[in-house]
């Protein structure tokens, strides 16, 4: 799987903030009291359940910031689907540094791998259709870049990153503007020529009105599979068809079979289960 790695310019401030939250002013007082300063060890990151790995750059950054002497060796790469028991990385060097960075590294790695694993499950469920799985802006504050990266590691795609990179007209925008036609006209007048315009609709009647005006994409919110099939027929390739709202692993295949282009799912970033990864003393 080929996807761009995260820039250290994005990663380092997030990891530094997490380490500061954990270590505070005094550092790891437990390890400093219990572990001799010159003690060295090696530990392995082991998958305690099968899943897709994401966040190795972030884990490595955590150890590097704690103690640059630590050596982080990868035994896997982001985007790989691996069985339970796989060793995905190894860290060696001063034991105090390993223990000080352990929880921060595992927090990021488990969370991001959980997102990648959940995404991969959905991607597999829609195989054979044209539908792509995409994330939303429903991310944890401060972690959006990392969480959206994890979605890509799982084989998914990213929706807009923020309010600044695409126009998405929702019901409240329509209410304020006094109607969908006026909202679209204002968006077309105010957006640059490189900015896409998408409109959210709840009913097929709203969809027909939007399509009579013309936009780049339509978000079909909380529609049944039968409604989605009819919506795809109405759109007829004139705009991107995106299904969203209440989609689960049990329903995603039927949604994809309706012919939509995109399926956007918020829970893959805000509520994906953590992937269980342990940092264990290396067996020698």
Please estimate the helix content.
40-55%
Strand order of the largest sheet: 6-11-10-9-8-7
The coarse silhouette is elongated
Q: Pick out the low-confidence regions.
A: none
What does this structure look like?
By secondary structure, this protein is an alpha/beta fold. It is built from eleven helices and twelve strands. The chain has helices at 8-23, 29-34, 56-66, 95-125, 144-153, 171-177, 180-190, 204-213, 225-235, 252-256, 267-270; strands at 40-47, 51-52, 71-74, 81-82, 87-94, 132-134, 167-169, 197-201, 217-221, 240-244, 262-264, 277-281. It has a six-stranded parallel sheet with strand order 6-11-10-9-8-7. Strands 3-5-1-12 form a four-stranded antiparallel sheet, with helices on one face. Strands 2-4 form a two-stranded antiparallel sheet. Strand 9 (217-221), helix 9 (225-235) and strand 10 (240-244) form a beta-alpha-beta unit. Helix 3 (56-66) packs antiparallel against helix 4 (95-125) and helix 4 (95-125) packs across helix 5 (144-153). The chain starts with 7 loop residues before the first helix and ends with a strand. The relative contact order is 0.16. It is an enzyme of class 2 (transferase). InterPro entries: NadC, NadC/ModD, Quinolinate_PRibosylTrfase_C, Quinolinate_PRibosylTrfase_N.
């Amino acid at each position: 799987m080929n996807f761009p790695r995260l820039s250290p310019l994005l990663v380092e401030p997030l990891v530094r903030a997490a380490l500061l939250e954990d270590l505070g002013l005094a550092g790891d007082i437990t390890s400093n009291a219990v572990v001799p300063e010159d003690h060295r060890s090696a530990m392995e990151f082991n998958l305690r359940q099968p899943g897709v790995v994401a966040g190795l750059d972030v884990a490595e950054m955590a150890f590097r910031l704690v103690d640059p002497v630590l050596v982080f060796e990868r035994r896997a790469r982001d985007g790989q689907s691996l069985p339970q028991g796989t060793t995905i990385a190894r860290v060696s060097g001063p034991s105090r540094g390993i223990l000080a960075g352990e929880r921060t590294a595992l927090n990021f790695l488990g969370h991001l791998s959980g997102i990648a694993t959940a995404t991969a499950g959905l991607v597999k469920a829609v195989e054979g259709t044209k539908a792509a799985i995409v994330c939303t802006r429903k991310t944890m504050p401060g972690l959006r870049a990392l969480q959206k990266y994890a979605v890509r590691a799982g084989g998914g795609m990213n929706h807009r990153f923020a309010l600044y990179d695409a126009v998405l007209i929702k019901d409240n925008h329509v209410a304020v503007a006094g109607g969908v036609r006026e909202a679209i006209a204002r968006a077309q007048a105010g957006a640059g020529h490189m900015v896409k315009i998408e409109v959210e609709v709840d009913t097929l009647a709203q969809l027909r009105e939007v399509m009579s005006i013309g936009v780049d994409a339509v978000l079909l919110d909380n529609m049944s599979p039968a409604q989605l099939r009819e919506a795809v027929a109405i759109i007829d390739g004139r705009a991107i068809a995106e299904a969203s709202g209440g989609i689960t692993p049990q329903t995603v295949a039927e949604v994809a079979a309706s012919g939509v282009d995109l399926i956007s799912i918020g829970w893959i970033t805000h509520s994906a289960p953590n992937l269980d990864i342990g940092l264990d003393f290396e067996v020698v």
